[in-house]
Amino acid sequence: MPITHPSFGTLADDRIIIFDTTLRDGEQSPGFSMNLEEKIRMAEALADLGVDVMEAGFPIASIGDFESVEAIAKRFSKDGPVVCGLARTAPADIQRAAEAIKPAARKRIHTFVSTSPLHMRVKLRMEPDEVLALVTASVTMARNATDDVEWSAEDGTRTEHEFLCRCVEAAIKAGATTVNIPDTVGYAVPEDMAHIFTMLRERVPGADKVIFSTHNHNDLGLAVANTLAAIRAGARQVECTINGIGERAGNASLEEAVMALRTRHDAVPVQNNIVTTKLLKVSKLLAATTGFDVQPNKAIVGRNAFAHESGIHQDGVLKDASTYEIMTPESVGWTTNSLILGKHSGRAAFRDRLKALGYEVGDNQLNDAFKRFKDLADRKKVVYDEDIAALVDEEVHRGSERIVLTGLNVSTGMGTKPMATITLEVDGERRDGMAIGDGAVDATFNALRQAWPHEINLKLYAVQSITGGTDAQARVTVRFEEKGKLVDGQGADTCTVVASARAYVHALNKLLVKRERTEPPSVLPQKASA
């Protein structure tokens, strides 16, 4: 039976709402912080991809979170996505979320509370009836601020079924229009999801008047499988993230869930509004923004997702791609264009190649990227797609950096102590550093610390070749830890030392963003332990 929803009107039975939480659940995971410009860039890409609801952040968490949600709320018209802000049950949370989403043409407040016996006893220190009262009070307050309210039962899959039914009924009576049952810790298996959603739809009064939503974490690698099981049991909203980023092992991957629904329409006959040919583009943008590449064998968007090395597989694919490919590379944004660029290539060819790779850049960004491309082409015989992607990805986040690497010289060799001199611009002010080290990279990092004094723990340093050959670009990844906060940075260059310096500076800029974020104060009543 079709459901009428305040944001979507009358929805067909087979319509799936795609709720993207990359900018909230995804962004709060270790190392993935984004600044305001990066969040807006990702929001625009997600809207272009066709997501229906965009959870833009947790407004009470920090001033930065509030400003980013508010800025995104101002960004889209009624033809754009619903902009959602997260809130706990506290009035201050809900009021802050309401203020942040106020400018949105289509807006939602998403409020939640823990409902499992473990969470209520250990985390909330509250009795079930107290939690039930919070459900009613929080949804009522949120509904007074907007007609689109989502309520979530945190740790819902480990909640006693009778109590879960009571909470869902209370949320519906208070005015929730979407009810989300999250597998918060990734504990459930598909059979659990099918049973929970079937039970709620059959037992809870008013269940036929709301949209049920599924939000699955990937701790056991079952997030997408659990998502599909929930859909088959009646859930009509899917909560997911690009590249599956999120707390711990991450969330259900948007690209995997969407392509599973498209490829196995026979098994799960539903439809959604995602433009699948843009999946790879958005995946690459997120990787460039956060500094986290997807693993090579990642489904859909990993670089090996459509690669075949086995002779048997290659023979089959050459005869008929469907022998070993259940979807076409082009359907998710990969291109088979083999145009090779070099130092004689012009701006038009470069722009065309960027477009084929899924990049839409403005004239200024194109000019900067083209200059770097020509510089790279002078050092390399052939510039591959991966090289182009690496240099454009760096341009994506360079414009908003407070710390910019402007100069680096390193002297090293057998029998000599490596020495590095470095020049930075920090908020427009020149900073110079000089230091020695156990190697060229160590000397460079020491010089960076001298130019801009700071104390961090270097937890990871990794080098990877972007392409083959001795003139290949190196991609360096570093991970910093400061007071329990983790950030990752990446840099690419044909010189490994320069790539290392770029990665270090990228991580420093992300650390500055992370420092601005604070944990929201505890607002739920605490009881003394017995």
Instruction: Report on the biggest sheet.
Output: 8 strands, parallel, barrel
Mean pLDDT: 88
How far apart are the termini? 49 Å
Radius of gyration: 25 Å
Beta-strand proportion: 15-25%
The main sheet orders its strands as 3-4-5-6-7-8-9-10
Number of DSSP helical runs: 17
Describe the global form.
globular
What low-confidence regions span 5 or more consecutive residues with pLDDT below 50? Answer: 524-530
Task: Provide the helix percentage.
Answer: 25-40%
- How would you name the oligomeric state of the polypeptide chains in this document? single chain
- Topology, number of strands: 16
Record the SSE blueprint.
Blueprint lengths: L2 E3 L3 E3 L5 E4 L1 H5 L9 H14 L3 E5 L5 H11 L8 E6 L3 H11 L5 E8 L2 H8 L3 H18 L3 E6 L6 H14 L3 E6 L6 H14 L7 E6 L6 H10 L4 E4 L13 H10 L15 H12 L20 H9 L27 H10 L6 H17 L5 H14 L4 E9 L7 E8 L2 E8 L3 H12 L5 E9 L8 E9 L2 E9 L2 H21 L14
Parallel strand pairs: 3-4, 3-10, 4-5, 5-6, 6-7, 7-8, 8-9, 9-10
Antiparallel strand pairs: 1-2, 11-12, 12-13, 14-15, 15-16
Helix pairs in contact: 2-3, 2-11, 3-4, 4-6, 6-7, 7-8, 8-9, 9-10, 11-15, 14-15, 16-17
